[in-house]
Amino acid sequence: MSFAWWHPLAALVPMLPSFWSIWHIWDHEFATPQQRALWLVLVVFLPVLGGIIYIFAGRGKARGKIQR
User: Fold this and answer.
1) Distance CA 27, CA 39 (A)
2) What is the radius of gyration, based on Cα positions, of the chain?
3) pTM for the whole thing?
4) 36 closest CA partner among 16, 15, 64, 14
5) Is 33 contained in some domain?
6) 2 located within any domain
7) By residue range, what is the domain housing residue 37?
């Protein structure tokens, strides 16, 4: 089997929702720190499915961007 240019792409594309979700959780405020931690744990331990669940169910629970 030979290595093609699209093999790394095929492995990374399903991970994009998880990467985006982690960034969004990290950059936004939630009602409680526990809620934020729960979403992070979900996205990290269920990589593809957790990211998709966060996009559809958890994104609306974020209050706003953290002012740094």
Assistant:
1) 13
2) 14
3) 0.83
4) 64
5) yes
6) no
7) 13-65
